[in-house]
Amino acid sequence: MLKAAADAGIHRLVIPTPFGVGDVNCYLIEDDPLTLVDCGPSSAVALLALESELERLGHSLRDVQLLVITHQHIDHMGLAHVFASRGRAEIACLDKLAPVLENWEHHGAQDDDDALLLMRRHGVEDHVAVALRSVADIVRGWGVSCRVDRPLVPGRPLELAGRSLEVLHRPGHSPSDILLVDQEHRVAITGDHLLAGISSNAVISRPLVHKWDGRRPKTLLDYRESLRLTAELDVDVMLGGHRQPVTGHRELIAERLQEHERRAEKIFDKLAAGPRTAHELATETWGEVAVTQVFLTLSEILGHLDLLIDRGLVTEDRSADVIRFARAE
């Protein structure tokens, strides 16, 4: 399938990251303008690898004229500032994401503060939550603020000389996920929306709005709706942000949706013993992993609890400082 994409002028560039997910896939579209989709984290290792990958394809960093960011996570947008300052590329992303990228440090700090509050409210020990908030200050440095030249409006195509890319907003994994769909060549570049071999976590994140009521975003419910819409796409291959391309996306989406159902059922079973915090449920499910990956496991558990709450099977007690969940009576 990578050959089919390459025949359509879309080439994969594999860039190392310092994160557990491993390498990130960026994609060079041989067209006018020469377009790169995603760019890796802001690190010397990633930059050297990106320059090497571009050289392998006969290009340099300064040849790239357009950089498109699929979503706000730092393994996909971190090096955008290099293209804006050292290169001559225009930077494009979802229109609602533009203010975030242009003031990344502030937005990232807000997101990390939200994560600290969420950890405390859902039963994570205070010393663990505070320590992880300190680590977040370091991790945030793999992303850097960057100007945005071309805000992308969902439903309005991104036109290149030799192709038209449909821009689709698919929130869930993050609030800002977009797909770029090349209908003529039956190829979609999907970021982390749908991945082969691993499930995309519906990470809890601050919504892309100026005014927010502070209520917890229902990211898994958003993600499931986005997956259902993606299942309707008529393409042969989806080029994801990690691992290998996805073929048979409808079957994979059906599998992912069924995985959500199985996980929700297991959480519901655990609540038979009585009310639990989300962190207690995460610890019962993953053991020590729930401490080392506490925010990801909380996002996972809370997403499935939201699915159960939406169906009237579980209630959420917010009356105390720490929130607990129980089976509905």
TrEMBL record:
InterPro entries: Metallo-B-lactamas, RibonucZ/Hydroxyglut_hydro, Sec-metab_biosynth-thioest. It comes from the Bacteria. Residues 23-242 form the Metallo-beta-lactamase domain. Gene3D superfamilies: Ribonuclease Z/Hydroxyacylglutathione hydrolase-like. It holds the Pfam family Lactamase_B. PANTHER family: ENDORIBONUCLEASE LACTB2, METALLO-BETA-LACTAMASE SUPERFAMILY POTEIN. This is Metallo-beta-lactamase domain-containing protein.
